[in-house]
């Protein structure tokens, strides 16, 4: 590059024209100086260049920052624009809410219409009311009712519509407010945007001015550069680079301008969009107004239609009303004739109504007084009942005492005789002739004609052959009652085989004996006392055969049972394993007896067709508990059908029959011993000498009550056995068990004694020798004389006692 400069010759080509040395020296100095100056100038320029470069760099940075800021602002504006577009869309969609306004307007119109309808109906109603009173059945009244209904309905509808209208008003108001808000915001953002644009334009202008200024500056630099180029290629190169850089920066500025233009373009576009949106909103609003106008027109048309319809209906109603009025006139005439009757009826009805109104009060009053009277009566009855109950209890106690006193006075051991009728088994002829007679004045005396000589016996009572089972039972039932009171009772039937023991104790199905009647009586007594006492009745059936005790209700009747003392130390006896059946009805009793019968041992003898050879015992236990006091009682009723007491010699028994008879005689003798010991109040009573007495111990001792039924045959051939039985009975009768005292009154002792001895039929077993002792102070009975005589005679044949 050749840069021409003033004074350039000095530096061009480097050739010297051959000046003399003196002139060359100052020139060199000058050159050195100028070189130095140039050097300085160069340094200064370099510094300026660097400063410019720094400035350029800074400006570049500034421009980049500005550009970034501008870009950010553009982005921001874009976002805002998008937001506004969205807002406008939303508003547009919300403006779809013009439907609401439509709806609201419709409702208002409807409401107005309803209000007018209502007014009209009210006017009609007023008119109807002003008319004369209608007949209840006529059309007019129906119409009136319909109108009233319609009016009510319209009122309800109006109210509903009013409510809905208010809601819609509120909603429209809210939406209008929001629209205004949005419009306000839109305006604000437009103003902001304009401001921003203004600001950006200003800055752009500033930047352009700065660039122009900068462009205007480089002239001296160029000069300097040219100057420097002469001196330094390096400086030249740096200048080139700077220029290139400057070029680049200018390009950059151009690009920025381009971007700015684009942004301005975008801004214009968005402004256009805004304008379009505004135009659309305007259009919508105008459409809205048009629709509103159309709607009003339609409503007007509808209103007219409705008025027309109402007028037509009114005209029809008038015609109908006319007809109704005519009918009404007829009805009124009828009404006038009916009114007096109606008045009478009304009066009657009012009177009845008054009565009906007063009736509950009268009824209540009557009921109250009746209730009070009934309550008083109940109270009186209750107190009477209580008094009666108290008296009843006292009477019961008294009865019990009297009963016991009666039994005590009668004697704790009572002996009753019963003579059976003559049966076909007795046969015919003189042997079957009657040998027994009775005293018509005294039912306790029996006369026996034995071998042509009369013998008399006095017992507690004697039943002749014609006496019934009931007669006999009546005599014993007092004892049975005392068993309920907790006493032990023993009733046993004694007599020769065939004398009627079983008949008296068991009886027949048609004519039951003491056993069944006793249980029936117990049931009825227990029933009577059921309100105060709880009773349980159990039965056991046992037999003593050959001194072996067997349970006739047990599963194994052959098993021999033992009699033992109760382990509780009460001194009571009991039989372990002896079955007890609880009975509550006659059916239960019959079942028990039947079962007992099947197990009982019976054998034939030549004395009777069939005869029991064992003692049969029915043991009834009555356990009671007093509800009020908790007192417990236990009474035992022993009903014993003893084995036949005939003499062994007469029956002609041998072998096992003889053994049976001996056992029977032994046990009957033991019974006699026990009774004798009790009578003579001996310290020791030999209860244990036989199973029978041992088992009956608690029913023979203490305050127990005993009844012996002595069964006798009336016929001549049995007079010896009858005599023995009656003697036994008389002896038993003379024994006392309780505190009372009874003594045998011996009427014809010598004759009897003679008879017995003379007949040689009375045999006394060695075990039954001591009936009485004179040392006890008891009166010497007839039996003791017999014993004495027997001992003297030395006869040892066994007799029952
Ligand atoms: N009072 C009476 N009335 C009618 N018949 C009776 C009467 N007493 C007994 N008999 C009859 O006499 C017969 C013998 O009586 P029953 O069998 O009762 O005698 P018994 O003493 O029990 O004899 P055994 O010791 O053998 O059992 C029976 O046919 C019975 O019907």
TrEMBL record:
Q: Which gene encodes it?
A: KIFC3
Name the segments for region: Disordered.
757-801
The membrane topology term of the UniProt record is: Peripheral membrane protein
The record's annotation in SUPFAM superfamilies points to:
P-loop containing nucleoside triphosphate hydrolases
Source organism per entry reads Vombatus ursinus (Common wombat)
- What GO cellular component term, any one, is given? zonula adherens
Record-given protein name: Kinesin-like protein
**Ranges annotated as biased composition (Low complexity):** 766-775
Q: Which residues bind ATP?
A: 495-502
- Which keywords fit this entry according to its UniProt record? ATP-binding, Cell junction, Coiled coil, Cytoplasm, Cytoplasmic vesicle, Cytoskeleton, Membrane, Microtubule, Motor protein, Nucleotide-binding, Phosphoprotein
């Amino acid at each position: 590059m050749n840069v021409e400069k003033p004074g350039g010759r000095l530096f061009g080509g480097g050739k010297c024209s051959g000046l003399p040395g003196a002139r060359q020296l100052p020139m060199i100095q000058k050159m050195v100086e100028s070189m130095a100056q140039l050097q300085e100038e160069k340094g200064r320029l370099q510094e300026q260049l660097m400063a410019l470069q720094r400035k350029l760099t800074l400006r570049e940075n500034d421009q980049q920052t500005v550009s970034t800021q501008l870009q950010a602002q553009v982005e921001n504006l874009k976002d805002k624009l998008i937001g506004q577009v969205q807002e406008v869309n939303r508003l547009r969609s919300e403006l779809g809410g013009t439907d609401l306004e439509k709806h609201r307007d419709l409702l208002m119109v409807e409401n107005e219409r309803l209000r007018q309808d209502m007014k009209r109906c009210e006017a009609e109603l007023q008119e109807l009311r002003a008319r004369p009173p209608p007949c209840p059945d006529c059309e007019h009244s129906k119409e009136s009712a319909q109108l009233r209904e319609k009016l009510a309905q319209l009122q309800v509808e109006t109210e509903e519509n009013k409510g809905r209208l208010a809601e819609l008003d509120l909603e429209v108001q809210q939406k209008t407010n929001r629209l205004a808000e949005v419009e306000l915001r839109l305006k604000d953002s437009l103003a902001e945007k304009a401001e921003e644009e203004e600001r950006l334009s200003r800055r752009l202008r500033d930047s352009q001015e700065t660039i122009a200024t900068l462009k205007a500056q480089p002239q001296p630099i160029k000069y300097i550069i040219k100057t420097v180029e002469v001196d330094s290629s390096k400086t030249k190169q740096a200048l080139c680079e700077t220029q290139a850089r400057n070029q680049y920066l200018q390009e950059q500025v151009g690009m920025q301008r381009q971007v700015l233009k684009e942004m301005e373009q975008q801004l214009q576009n968005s402004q256009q969009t805004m304008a379009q949106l505004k135009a659309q909103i305007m259009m919508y609003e105008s459409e809205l107004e048009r629709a509103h106008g159309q709607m009003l027109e339609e409503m007007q048309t509808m209103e007219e239609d409705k008025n027309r319809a109402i007028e037509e209906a009114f005209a029809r109603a008038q015609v109908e009303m006319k007809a109704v009025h005519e009918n009404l006139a007829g009805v009124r005439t009828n009404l006038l004739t009916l009114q007096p009757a109606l008045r009478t009826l009304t009066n009657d009805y009012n009177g009845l109504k008054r009565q009906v109104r007063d009736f509950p009060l009268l009824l209540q009053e009557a009921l109250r007084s009746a209730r009070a009277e009934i309550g008083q009566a109940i109270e009186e009855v209750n107190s009477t009942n209580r008094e009666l109950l108290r008296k009843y209890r006292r009477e019961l106690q008294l009865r019990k005492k009297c009963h016991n006193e009666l039994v005590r006075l009668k004697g704790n051991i009572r002996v009753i005789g019963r003579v059976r009728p003559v049966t076909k088994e007795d046969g015919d002829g003189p042997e079957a002739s009657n040998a027994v007679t009775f005293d018509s004045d005294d039912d306790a005396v029996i006369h026996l004609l034995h071998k042509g000589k009369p013998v008399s016996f006095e017992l507690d009572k004697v039943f002749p052959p014609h006496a019934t089972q009931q007669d006999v039972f009546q005599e014993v039932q007092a004892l049975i009652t005392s068993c309920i009171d907790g006493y032990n009772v023993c009733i046993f039937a004694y007599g020769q085989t065939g004398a009627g023991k079983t008949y008296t104790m068991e009886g027949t199905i048609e004519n039951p004996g003491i056993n069944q009647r006793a249980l029936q009586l117990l049931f009825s007594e227990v029933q009577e006392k059921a309100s105060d006492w709880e009773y349980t009745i159990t039965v056991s059936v046992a037999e003593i055969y050959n001194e072996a005790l067997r349970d006739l209700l047990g599963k194994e009747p052959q098993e021999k049972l033992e009699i033992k003392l109760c382990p509780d130390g009460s001194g009571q006896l009991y039989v372990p394993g002896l079955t007890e059946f609880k009975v509550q009805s006659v059916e239960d009793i019959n079942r028990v007896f039947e079962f007992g019968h099947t197990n009982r041992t019976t054998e034939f003898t030549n004395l009777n067709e069939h005869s029991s050879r064992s003692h049969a015992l029915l043991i009834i236990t009555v356990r009671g508990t007093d509800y009020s006091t908790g007192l417990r009682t236990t009474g035992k009723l022993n009903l014993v059908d003893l084995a036949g007491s005939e003499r062994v010699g007469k029956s002609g028994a041998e072998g096992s029959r003889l053994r049976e008879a001996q056992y029977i005689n032994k046990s009957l003798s033991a019974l006699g011993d026990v009774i004798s010991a009790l009578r003579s109040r001996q310290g020791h009573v030999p209860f244990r000498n036989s199973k029978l007495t041992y088992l009956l111990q608690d029913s023979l001792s203490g305050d127990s009550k005993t009844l012996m039924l002595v069964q006798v045959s009336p016929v001549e051939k049995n007079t010896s056995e009858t005599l023995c039985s009656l003697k036994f009975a008389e002896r038993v009768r003379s024994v006392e068990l309780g505190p009372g005292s009874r003594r045998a009154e011996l009427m014809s002792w010598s004759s009897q004694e003679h008879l017995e001895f003379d007949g040689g039929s009375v045999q006394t077993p060695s075990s039954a020798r001591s009936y009485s002792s004179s040392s006890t102070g008891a009166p010497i009975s007839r039996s003791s004389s017999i014993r004495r005589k027997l001992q003297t005679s030395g006869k040892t044949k066994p007799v029952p006692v």
